[in-house]
Structure formats: structure tokens, C-alpha cells
Records
---
Amino acid sequence: MSQVIARLMILFVVISAPAIGLAQTESLDELYKKALKEEGVLNCYCSLAQINAEKIYPQFEKRFPGIRINHVDATSDKLAARAITEARGGRVIADVVEFGLEDINKLRDQGLILDRPIPESAEYPSTLRGSYWNANNLIFFVGAWNTGLVKKEDEPKSLDDFGDPKWKGKLIAEPRDVEILIALNHKHKSLEKARAVLGRIAANDVEFHKGHSELAEFLVAGQAAACFTCYSHHYPSRMRKGAPVNYFLSEGAAGIIAVSILKGAPHPNTALLFARWAASQEGQRVYALGGRTPAHPKIEPTEKIRPAVIYPVGVEDLKEFTKYEKIWKEIFKLR
């Protein structure tokens, strides 16, 4: 009898442990009180475009009065290089970084990123979170086409469809979008099958142009029939203006913009407050209204730009990015 009671007590502890841990997590408002004691500023090395930042960051400041976001704006690679240079000089200025996961990994490799999972990350799939990062917003690569040049019955339904010979001489793409190969690898669970799909697409004599906005404008102008590396968020606004374009949302590759906290951040509680808020449903709604595509699975973007099936380019993919890039360039004969 005593053994039965002992087992029941152990079972109770195991079952109750997560709930107890959750109960002990301080609320955002409790954390905010600590953050107010840290000079009232958050140094954010963030690649968020100004048009979005002007809508999103003021909402954080409104939600947490007395805290101002010092937004240091530049591209991901430049912000990462700046943080590394400062650290080598013995200074940590940034509290948080918010940019491409590949550049966050560069900081991680230098030992500059804090390992700090946040409670809100539990609501995300494992492909969109890690021990030192949490996906914030996503960029989707999908197929798009000119509706005046592509008949309804010929519209592509997936990335693989662009391997059909009917697309020969009709395709454009961005030469740096290795994410498509990675997505096909995830989709087919085989690098060889992914290579075969891209080989068929390459046989259609793809024309490459740098810049996703340029790709969209080429389609609008009818200078190409279709594109298989287009950003989904480039099309709703153009379609509302009457542009003869469309795009599929059956599937797509996803580039991850993530948030991480710097080791030795000058305002650690403020940094944690921002990271938790940005990952929360509350914060993700603000990002959606600010024109970004929220990474949170329960928060929908304001435009129809999220594919039904998503293939995120994650940490392990980025570790092998050089390998994927080499294959991509070999297939399409790119320099």
C-alpha cells in the first residue's frame, strides 16, 4: 500500500511540475516594473523597415510607458557586423537584435547571444523557436504569374509545377534565393529529389534578375510570364491596383526574422520584456497591423500572404547554407 501511495505522489509531482513552473513565470506587467529601473531605454539593432517600425515600436512604448526604443536601423549583415565590432572593443550596446536568423547565428558563433528561452515560445512550432531565438516575422517565397500571359488552366499550383516544359523561356527568378532548394529538400525529404525538381526548372531557361520588387514589376509589365522565387507580400497591393498578377499560397519557403537578447545587455529586463512582448499574441497582432507577417501560428497577417504549407529555413539549414548555395549555383549555372 505504501508503495502505491509513493508512486501516486511521484506521478502527482511530474504532472504538476509544468503547471507550477508556469505559475511562477512573472507577467509582462511584473517584468515591466523591473524594466522601469533600467534607464527607460531599449537599444534595438533591428532591420525592420522604417515604414513598419513607425507603426509597431510606438505601440510597445504606449503599452509600456516610460520605455523608449532606440531603433538602430540597417540591414541584418551590417547590424551583426556592428555588434561584433563593438563586442571586440569591449562594449555591448545593443539589448536585443531583430533580424535574419542567419545573422543572429553569426552573433551566436561569436558567443554574443544569450541562451534564454522565453515562456511565450511554447506556443510556436519547434521550427520557429530555439534556445536563443524566437521567430518574429516571416518572409515567404512563392510562385507568381501574369494573368494576361498565363491561362487559368495553366496556372501553377506548386513549386514543382515550374519544371513543366510549358514554362520554357517564360520564367524569371532571383539568383540568390537558395531558400527554394532548401524548401524542396524539406518537401521531398530528399536532397536528390529536390535537385531533380530544380534541374527540370533550370531546363526551362530561367532568366535571373536581382531584387524581388523588380521581379514583381517585370510580371506586372508582362516582361515575363511567371516567377518561382517571388515574395508573397508583394502582390496583394498590386492586385488591388488592378495589376494583372496572381500568386499561389499552397506552399512556400519561409525566411525567418527572429529576436534574440545580447549577452551582457545593458538593460536586461527591458530586453526580456521586449522579446516576450514581441513573441506574445498581443505583440504579434501589433506586428500584423504594422504590415509584417507574424510568425505566431494563431495570429493571421492582415493580407493573404501566408502559405498553407510552410518550409522554414531553420538553424540546421543555415549551418549547411554554403552546401545548398553551391548546388543551387551549379544547377542554374550561376557565378
Note: The chain has 13 helices and ten strands.
---
Amino acid sequence: MMAPEDLHGLFGEAFETLRRAIEGFQPPLEVQETGVVTTVLNGIARVSGLPNAGYEELLKFPGELYGIAFNLDEAEIGVVLLGDHWHLRAGDEAERTGRVMDVPVGEELIGRVVDPLGRPLDGKGRIAFRRRLPIERSAPAIMDRAPVNAPLQTGVKVIDALIPIGRGQRELILGDRQTGKTAIAIDTIINQRDKDVLCIYCAIGQRAAAVAKVVAELEENGAMGYTIAVVSEGNDPPGHNYIAPYAATSIGEYFMEAGRDVLIVYDDLTQHARAYRELSLLLRRPPGREAFPGDIFYIHSRLLERATHLREDKGGGSLTALPIVETEAQNIAAYIPTNLISITDGQIYLSPTLFELGVLPAIDIGKSVSRVGDKAQLPVYRMATGNLKLDYAQFEELESFSRFGTRLDERSRRILDHGRRIRAVLRQPEMAPAPVPEQIFVLLALGKGLFGPIPLDKMKNAEQAVRNAVKELDPEILDQLYSPEGLSAAGLAAVVGLCEKALEPLKEKPHE
């Protein structure tokens, strides 16, 4: 049995240890920096009291409303709001989140329609995503990029033949309202079926009915199985319109970095520029040309610079961008169109004059260009197109001249006759993309003058007959159409022979 003095010493040490532990205990404190909303305007708020907030940091407001810190002034922060802000009032609290704006990415998004925050809009339930990426990311370094050398077939004859687009290229589509800009983009998406290309359709400030029509067309043609639609409607806050293309690009980059080929359509960047102008003017940023802020070029260049083709050791994926921009009264020298023309690798210009004449797609070949050129084209196209672009340009010049009623020589009449057949062949209905073999057959028949004896009113039937002749081609020669060497002499003779055979019944018979 222990003596009383020993027990006292033992308990004394225990009490002393406990006392020191209590005195040294400091509960973990979560310091939450909060500010106060001072002003709420159309899509923006001004917040005071967040001295440590960073540029483009995500801020949280009551009612699960978020915003992006855009202006970091000395006394307050200008915040772009991302959602309905009707309930937000001056005096409400704003909290820092410590993170930048991000978006969910992954396979789960394929086939879905989402808003720029990743929330579903298609009524198919919530998306069980596993990863998020910031919407603002640095473009791949120059040394991580590979040349653009693989074609992205659009299925539109005039584009694939004369204005080819490569995987990793940025090709601008521009023209006045209602000239078929979106139709070309939708045809390109539809043509990616069974080609292992993931597509992203990004609608920026579009009418809800127009977006619903596009999604319905994609569903009807079986394209939503490999497409993601990122939608910001016209009545959404301007902050949604501003972040939509960046969110869509981050979604595309996830797949590109996984080694896949991705096509992204921005429809359209005119609305994006207007949304950014609205936000900038509300935030009291100095206006410049056409009231656009001085960094409007920068916001589009940092977006489109993210489209590229990665080196093989970086996965070998690609992100091809088809930005759409609207012109007014055919003025391609306006501020936003010229900005985007200088950023991109070429443009497809749609002429309202051709559209009114019923020449669809209404692509003006003279004003359209691909700066990547035939490096992004199957070699067989070079054999098939030949002098097609030059012949068509000569035809257009002569056509204008011939309207004055001048008597033309035989050579000029032949040029006009051939040009009318080129125009007839390059016409194409919407949502009817043409496969490569059928395009090559038609272009070779055109280049060899096989449509010459065909009356103009029978050109549609003649083209269909040539396209049907593809079924009779030997499979070995069919494979040559996709090979780096192109068609052999024997293969070319076989194709021309099939075209002549198909056109024989439609030739104009000489008068007795």
C-alpha cells in the first residue's frame, strides 16, 4: 500500500500535466473573410471589405449565387455575377471561396446539354462528374504543339475541296445574319459520325428556340451521342455569356489532353464581345473603338490560342475551333471581324448575294481562305480539284461582264458553261454531308469535263448518278483515296471510267 505522500505526488504530476495541456490547447480557427455588397447593377455587383481577394477569384453571395472578382480597385471590387441576382441587395454579405471559376469535365457530359456552370438543362437528371477544371487555363506551350496535318472533313464539298480545315486549326465562319453560318457548323458536327471526333457546340447568347432547334437536329441525325452542348441563352445574365466559351474550351481540353480529337463551335463570338462590352461599361472600364474595351482582342486571342494539335508525347490530341462571327452589311473590315480574322488560321465568308440567288451554301470562294492549305487535306483532293478555284474565279468575272450583253467568243462561252456546272456541283442541301469517295468522284468528273455534255437542268441527277457509282469501285482503289500517295494511274482511270459510264444515259443527244 502506497504512502499518502506518494499518492499526493502522483496526482500532483497528473494534474500539472493536464493543466499544461489545457493552457496549451488552441482550437483551430477558421478565418472567413467577408465583404459587403454596396451596389447591384445589371449583372454586376460592387463589394467592399475584401482586401485579399484575387483577380478572377470566385465569390459567394446569399442564395447560392456566385460571382467573379473582375475589378480590383482600392476601395471596392467589381464582381461579374453568374446567375439570377434579383434577390441580391445592398448590404448583403459576400464571402471569398479561395478558388477560381471552374467547370465539371469528363465522359459523363457527352450527350448532355449544360449551362456554363455545368448544370444540366436537358431534364435528364444531375451529372455525376468526378473532376473539375478552371475555365481560364494557359494555352499549350509552342514546344508542346505539332503541325496541323490531318484533315477534319466537314462533308461540305466546297470547303473540303477548296478551303480545307485541319485538326487543330482555327477557321472563322463569318457573314451577315441568316446566311447559313450555323448550318455549316452543324453539318460539320453531323459529318463527324464514326470518325472518333468529339464535338462541342457552344451557344452564346442565342434565342432558346434557336438552340432547341439545333439540339433537335443533332438528336435527329444521331450526333448527340458524341456531342456536348454548352448553352448560354440570350436572356441569361451577361456573365454567363462571357464565361460560356471558356467553360466549353476547358471541357474540350480535358478530352484533347487525353489524346482525343475535339471539334468546338462557338456560336457566336459577336454575342460574346457584346456581353463583355456590357460588363466592361457597367464596371466603368474605359471604352475604345465602337465602345468595346481595349482588351477585347486579348480575350478572344487567349480563347482561340487554346485550340491546337498536341505532340505525340503529349497525347497527340487536337482541339479544332470553328468560331462564328456576324457581320453587318457585308462589312468584314469592322472591329470584331478583323480582330478574329487576324487571330484565326483562315476564314469562310458567306455572301448574302449568293444566298439570295439560292447558291447554297453561300460561300464566297474569293474571300474565303485556309492558311493551313493543302497540308490539312487528303492528297487525292489535289488531284481532283486541279484548277477548280481559278476556273471558278474566271467564271465569276466573266459572268459579271456577260450581263452587259456583249457578244462573247467561243473560249469565253466555254468558261461560262464550265463555271455554271461548277456552281451546280458545289451546291449542297443542309444536313446532307458528302463522304470523301463521293466528293472525289464528283470533283474528278468536273475536272475532266465529263459534265460538259449534261444539260444544266439535269446536273442534280448527273451528280447523284456519279455519287452512286462509288458502290461499283474496287475496294483496293477505294482505300487509295485515303492513302498518302493518292490515286494511282490505274485507280484514276477506273474512277473516270465509272463516272463516264454513270453519265452516259444523261448526256444531251445531238439533234438529228
Note: The domain at 383-506 is CATH 1.20.150.20 (Lysin).
---
Amino acid sequence: MTMHLAYYLHDLSPHLLRFTDSMALHWYGLAYVLGFYCTYRIMLFLSQRGLSEIKADQVADFITLVALFGVVLGGRIGYMLLYDWDSFVQRPWMLFMIHQGGMASHGGIAGVALFCLWYARKHHISWAGIGDSIVCGAPLGIFFGRIANFINGELFGRVTNVSWAVKFPTELLHEDFVKQGGTPISLPPGAMHSPDIITHFETSGEEGKAALEEILHPRHPSQLYEALGEGLLLSGLLLFIRIRYPRLPHGIITGLFFILYAIARISLEFVRQPDSGSDGIMGLTRGQFFSLFMILVGVGFILHGWMRGPTKLQKA
């Protein structure tokens, strides 16, 4: 006797609050706010204990600037350059269409690193020292972002039969649906999220939602794996090390962030479904390939730190 698992049918809305068809508050926006706020609190905590290059009364301004010029601008530029180059060349103004989605974590990390370099030179403080503080909180931004990805039903995982698999209606919009043997489905304009797709099936046939569940493939909720591995656990580990070993040379913790994030990203990409139209590189997904360079950057930070020697604790 064969037992069929009743997989969860993803039915979450991307809207936290919806006022009109064109005006709403999104979970993704809340994720950014929570990420910036938590990073601010952690950096303030470290500053008040003399464990940061940035003074406590400077943290708020620093977070505001790094959020705008590092995370948002860097993430958007990174996405256009690494994942949507053709659209960027044809329509460069797409760079400013942030409300349409499209942010790359690798671009955001690079943007933050470059902003911190500029900030360090402007204020004559250690670039690596700034990094050692911000990387303790920044993974929480990744954590909230991946949770928002799950709520949005985007960046889902590969097909699987694990008991906790999820059926994402948004799979119908992905090229892998057909590759897995599915028949192309014509959806009405605007049916881009799970509730809209479910509603379409409920109103277009007798079987309704059951018909939708029948054609969908159970997939890894890889967004949640990444939220834990690349976000929550990484932040907790780095914060513990920063507090437990306060005199570690500048750059060690920054280097650990780059290396551990890259390892987590490379590992979890094996269960994450690549984006539609995203070709791999040398047998790796684009996310895995770009993460290899982060390992080299991390090793560079660690070697630089050990050469500089232990740091002196700053006065709060």
C-alpha cells in the first residue's frame, strides 16, 4: 500500500497590508527594516562594550548610510550585473526599478564592503575593524530576507520527496515546471503570487485547488534552510566569537564571515532551484561560482589580520 504525503500548499501573500491594488506594504520591505534595525542593535551593543571601531553615537548614522549606499544600491547593481545583464544593457534605467524586485546578496555584500572602505578612509579608522562589527549583525538581514523569499514563494528549492516539502504555486511561472514534465499553464495577467494562482484555479474549474495540488511538485523550502544557515546561525556564531575573543586581530571575524557564508551558500545551492534562464558556470550555479571568490576574500582578511596582530580594545 503506497502512502501519499499531504504536502503543504504554499498560500502566503507577499503583502503585509494591502490598501489598493497598486499600494501595499510588503513583507520584503519589513524584512529590510528588521535587518537594518537588528544590525544597528548589535553594532550598538558592541560599541558600548568597546568592541567596535565606530562609537556608539555614530552607529545610527552609519547604519542609515550603509543601508542605502551599501545594501540597496550594491544589491541592485549586483543583481543587474550578475543575473540580468542583458536587460541592463538593453534598458539601463531598470537599475532604478527596485520596486519590481531583483536584489543579489553577493552584490549587497560587495556594496557594504566598498562603503565601509570609503567610511574607514574618511574617518581614519580600520576598515577590517568596521567589518568585524557589521558582519555580526548583517547575517540577520539575510535571515529576514530569506524568510520574505519564502513568504513570497520565490527562490524555492529543487523537487524532493522529504516529508516537509512544500508545493509552491509560483512554480507554474518557472521553466523547471515544464522540465519536470508539467504542461504549460496559461495564467491571467497579474497572477504572480500563490494566493492569486490558487484563486484562479478555484474559480476556473470544478476540481479547483485540488487540481493545482495535483500538478505541482513537492520542493525543498530552501529559503528556510538559507535563512538558518546563511543568516541566524552565522550571526550567532560570529557574535559569540567577537565577544569571547575581544582582542582578535582586525579582519579575522570579517574573514570568517566571508568563508562561512560562502560554504553555507555553496552547500545549500545544491537543493535550491536555479532561477529561470540562469545558466550555470563550470558545472556550478551562479550563486556557487560567485561564492568561491568570497572564500578567497575571506582568506585574505584572515591572513592580513594575523600579520597585524592583536587589537587594542576601544573605549566606549
Note: The longest strand covers residues 15-18.
